[in-house]
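Readers of this paper often ask what the protein records in our data store actually look like. An entry from our holdings is shown next, in its original layout:
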Amino acid sequence: MAMSGASPADDPSAGTGAGGRPHPGGDDRAPLRGEVRPGRSAVASSRSALAGLIRRDLAVLRKNFGEFVGRTVMQPFLLVFVFLYVFPSIGQGIGSGGGTAGESAFATVLVPGVVSIAIMFQGIQSVAIQMSQEFGFTREIEDRVQAPCPIWLVAVARVLSGAAQGLISAVIVFPIAAVVHAPGVHPQFSVHWWVVVTLIPLSCVAMTSLGLLLGTTFEPRNIGVMFGFVVLPLVFLGGTYYQWTKLAPVEVGGFHWLQTLVLLNPLIYITEGMRAGFTDLSHLPLYVVYPVLLGFCVLFLGLGLRNFRRRVLS
């Protein structure tokens, strides 16, 4: 016989209804029979998915590393081969009016610019072109967005893996650009490591963020338009072949219009930062380079993520 003085806490059936289901006000800390609880949080799942996507891209890179190196090296090698070897060898070197000293000065200017455009092209090739193809005929993006993470994190994974490729390209290109030159041409380098190790990763993320924006803006059939109207102006107005500080004589009515115009180009901040990192040449102040480049990175990434989400959900 049940004791009339027994409390609800002593009754194992208290707080439960038929079939042992918890009442709304009962103790429901114990899991129901057959209930499945997640083994990890959504944050942990997203982090794991992000790492998996990056590892996948890097595994593909490792498998096709020879192709990657050839694609990365070809344009920078041709630039330094023609400008720093062929032209001086045939007596048409840029800066040759000052003899080998003038040619060496131009080589000192050009090599950091070559590293900069290698980072830029790698960002566009690894993100923009791939993204355009995945949204186009391959439809690979449909598999990627099924990863257990937010849609925007899929795009961030591509940006980060592309940035890693840009970092590798900078490591490969600089030694080649520094040694390929005619006899008598000697670039003068003075490596400032704190600038190099901070600016190159930031530049890689900024250019892959630009690649994300371009890849989600241009259709595959318009890639030629992208290179003609976006990429080429970036290269030729990005300080690859000249210092920003030397543009002051280009003026109209005392207004240094070209020196002002190129400040709209994100590549100018990378090339000037590279000159600060690899040489003792005059350059844009670093207290301008870092904040502006970071601002471009945030702008490109924000617009790229917005476009990416629209393209996926459309």
